[in-house]
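Instructor's aside before we start: the two examples that follow are unrelated to each other. I chose them only because their records fit on one page, so don't look for a connection. First example below.
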Amino acid sequence: MPPNLPNAPTLPPRVAPWLAALALSLLLGLQPVSTDVYLPALPMLTAALGAPMSSAQLTMSALILAFGLGQMVWGPVSDRIGRRPVLLAGLALHTVASAGCALAGSIEALVLWRTLQGAALAAAVVCARAIVRDLYEPVEGAQVMALALSGLGVIALLGPLAGGFAAAALGWRGPLVLVTAVAALTLGFIAWRLPETLPRPDPNATRAGPLLRRWATIGRHRVFLAWALLVACTYGGLFTLLAASSFVYMDVLGLSPAAYGAAMALGSLSYLAGTLLCRRWIPRHGMAGSVARGAVFTLAAGLLFAGAAAAGVQALWAVLLPQCLYAFGHGIHQPCGQAGVVGPFPQAAGAASALAGLVLALVAFGIGLWLGVALDGTVRPLAYGLGFWALLTCAVAWTLVQRLPPALPLAPARAAAP
């Protein structure tokens, strides 16, 4: 019998794929819950709290910036002490912050609570990405991520509908009460069913010197750069939709909160369809081939929306159809990108996930600041913004991603351990 070596890798626990996918759906789903459910309340709280447009957008962009910066803390900590304690702490903090948002009496208090909410949300998302790498090799991880994001698509589908009805029934605080309830339920499920997945804690994961060197190595890695840029660009278009759509649909096109929720739910249904197609494409075309095909839908969405806006068209179909096309392509890009950024780093998945999350958050924060001054009572800022990010997404999908070496074959991470 070979001796027990102290530095020998430890096998991750056997977590059933359905349980991993369900846990990932709930953890990743907190992000659209924290944003999409809240969207129907944006015009209402702007009026109720007497806030200018820039302050209303700050409630979104502050959450996203804190979300990105928080991942830089939670990611390395999860590499050192494990995913489970970080998840439990982050989800508890998210529940408290969500309740604070619902009770806020001023726009300044709301921005503060939303900032704390974003920092807590970072724990859920960074650990979710890292858990995929703990348990699976990149290609199989992309398939499990696609399954999880299908579940997220259901959450995103129901979120705007529920938020619209909550806003219509209870005012702008209603959707925030709903977010609090979802956060509490997610905390309960993770505490009940999800075991620790980190194979072996790294005691040096949070030391400043090794951590900075690790981030420098990750940031220069061509696989990380390609997938992180793809995720950031495709989310840039989605965040433009999220941050501006309520003002366009409700203020420009005259939809009610409930009707707006239905319009966003239709986009979420398209996203769900994209994730389902992604699961079929990955075994046939690989991750790079899948995103190359998905970029066709992304490009069609950007060109259609920008072209209609340039022609002066301000009709429901001219917003809803590009939104659905873009969401469909996003459902293909996201599973591959989320698995791709952590694929080369099985011993530093938390740090890699955090760095990718920071890039995404900085992009979204800049978009929020821009929309605060760009929204002008027409569809043009939303249309041109979506068109810009669609072009960048396609450029990355058709160049940087295609130059990457082939991904590893389908195999669980534990099969490679000695």
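Example two begins here.
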Amino acid sequence: MAHFVFPCPLRWSDMDTYGHVNNVVYLRYLEEARVAMFFNGAREAGVKSFEGELVVVRHEIDYRRPLVFRPEPVLIETWVTDIRSSSFGLRYEVRDEETTFARASSVLAAYDADLGHARRLTQEERAWLERFRSE
């Protein structure tokens, strides 16, 4: 299956006093990759129901190497690991061609903002998620 790859630019303000990307900034990078994947990528495929209807249930990040400022973006590679009735798992690698800087995972749930609780994934959403499913 395909992985979604997002080129994420680094900003000077992402650095902390130790001269590398601050650990909290990694969550922002993952968010930017998810927005590109679920808003832009899904919309281009005709799936618009993810927009504003996903919530993060859980994040986990393993930092592997320090990432310092550079003009080239890092790649955020994202894939789906499991699909449940109302939620699904994502895995990420923050990397370039030579180095993996971090590995992460998230659980997201489909959400009905009007009712204030999780909702079931639609068949269209499930089919789109399957395109990126990998172990």
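The first helix runs from residue 23 to 44.
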